[in-house]
Amino acid sequence: MSGAGAGAGERPARRSVLRGGAALAGLGAFGGFGGFGGLAYGASSAYADDADSPYLVGRGIADVTGEIAEVGMMGYGRVDQQAEGLHARLRARAFVVVDRAGGERVALVVADLGMIFDSVHRAVLRRLAERYGGLYTARNVLLAATHTHAGPGGHAHHVLYNLTTLGFHRQTFAAITDGIVEALARAHDDLAPSTLRLSHGELRDASANRSLAAFRLNPADITGQFPDGIDPQTTLLRVERGGRAVGAVNWFATHGTSMSGDNRLIGGDNKGYAAYHWERLVAGGDYLSPGGPDFVAAFAQTNAGDMSPNLSLTPPTHPEDIAAARACGLRQYEAAAGQLAAAGAPVTGPVDSRLVHVDLSAVTVGPAFTGDGRAHTTAPPAVGAAMAAGSMEDGPAFPGFVEGENPLWDAISDAVIYEVSPELREAHAPKDIVVPIGAMNDLFPWVQEIVPVQLLRVGQLYLVGVPGEVTIGAGLRLRRTVAEAVGAGVRDVLVAGYAGAYFHYLTTPEEYDAQQYEGGSTLFGRWQLPALQQTAAGLARAMAEGREVPTGPGSPDIADKALSFQPGVVWDTPPAGSDFGDVLTEPEAAYAPGQRVTAVFAGAHPSNDPQRGGTYLLVQRRSGDGDAWEAVADDGDWSTVLRWAREGVAASRVTITWDVPEDAAPGTYRIRYTGDAKALSGRLRGFSGTTRAFAVAG
User: Fold this and answer.
1) Domain count, the chain
2) CATH code for the domain of 660
3) Domain boundary among 503, 531, 559
4) Which pLDDT score is estimated for 268?
5) pTM of the full predicted structure?
6) Which range of residues forms the domain containing residue 637?
7) Which residues, in sequence order, are CB contacts of 462 under 8 Å at separation 6+?
8) Does the structure show a pLDDT above 90 at 519?
9) What is the pLDDT of residue 416?
10) Residue 238 class from Cβ within 10 Å (0-12 exposed, 13-18 middle, 19+ buried)?
């Protein structure tokens, strides 16, 4: 059908919450809407059973999907990795916990992003202050990323991260900040008496150490703790109301690199799938319903710096990487949901937070943390040759560089850089310096040097907010440092990585000496981890003693220095001989479960409207004998894909596919597409198109 025939400008209605399992796009390994291990999933209202709970807890979820076409993707640092469509929408999941006795509160947001840059952190906090006054601050709000390598870039203000995205992308930045604020607002509005339970398990087939040569340089107190070179701990904080699970946060260390650098589709990678599987396929949630799903599940990162999801330690390929991301995400879901079979430890104790800003370019570290009985000092950031090489196991970067020793750059560093600056030698050797980026910062803001370090407490659980990628060895040292200071068990102290800002990697000094990718990316030198241990110890002691900590000055606001080089959409025209919304290629007449349905539409550029909170597409099934249609999948489902391609100068061809689930209900189906076309005047005109009906057999 053409756009006119489908009702030009008509928007697909939001679907109601689906109640029947057959209506869902596949129920997954555990299927259905009942509980796992006897614990049921429930709606969000409070129950009398929780009236005496020491906590108020709120949960919220919102869309943070930005541009899905002609935007550089964030993670692999490849100029050629420009987005060409959408596999699954990105979400921010927020949890607020209030101590009813003391009144203290903390907020945790886990967003399907590559990193949380200072730009996003700053904008979110500013808007929270405008909305809530001093209720939510840099101290008690922890913003963390899942580190998907399949998300859009261009949302940083520091120039290094926008080199492959042709600068700053305001539209993506707005979608991310709007979505995070919306998720937090929903969590705030959802506050109600709730029971919190904490449990731990092990997951051994969702990560592999991609830098074993470096890891094995650690002393026995680290290698003995992780004999397989991985951190298998999977931790679950679950929210219950009336004995029903209404939310959960899982922490597990593995990289968001199941999707390859050849992928061109926006999506949440393995952790995005884990959350989607639990919320949608198991708990039956609907992302398009007001407020989102009743059950909210966040899959957060911890010390994943050297943890690869690619168990063969070879870079993934596309499109096989889609199945790999799903498999790794499913394992994380199973390990998390499996913990519901046990009661878990009731969470008890205060809610608290501390934060300090640290200038990592000039920290003097005392002998208690350096390991050699002497004081040392960090130095301005420098990029090592091994960083330029990229991780050979997940995705190489620039040719001509390797992990480990790079003789040319080693000679330049020794003969020139370290001779001119003995201070850099003391801090950075044996790094083969390629880019003395600290000196470049003096001219223009390339990377952040002053970063936030946080410590959040929820009862017996402690989260160390670190703005970077922490190896399991470095993470263990941080966890032990905090655990000793507060008197907690090490397994109840977690590194919350990718939080609040981004400073690249954090290795142990021993790992640093190997100058694998992670060591070359430890920007502030060999003593960066001891500097952060010293900082975390100070926060932990202050928290244990009930003392406040001066936060110190944060990183300067550089929003006015953000550069944009990529022009926006100028105008749209339909492909020759068609109108917007016309179906250029119709589906076949009938399909069997497991087959792929394909339809091609005369479209418009997706960046005209990212449809945040909505959808570009719907897969609909005829309901009953009438002409009513019920949506069974949208562009947030893993069974659908939208691919965009430019045709000529200003025309767009949009291809939508739907993989029919094995358990799809027999019936009559159709696909609807929604877009916005831009005129030369800048005015947007909404349109839609609908395919002919097709049958799905039983």
Assistant:
1) 2
2) 2.60.40.2300
3) 559
4) 98
5) 0.94
6) 3-12+569-696
7) 455, 456, 482, 483, 486, 488, 492, 493, 494, 540
8) yes
9) 86
10) buried
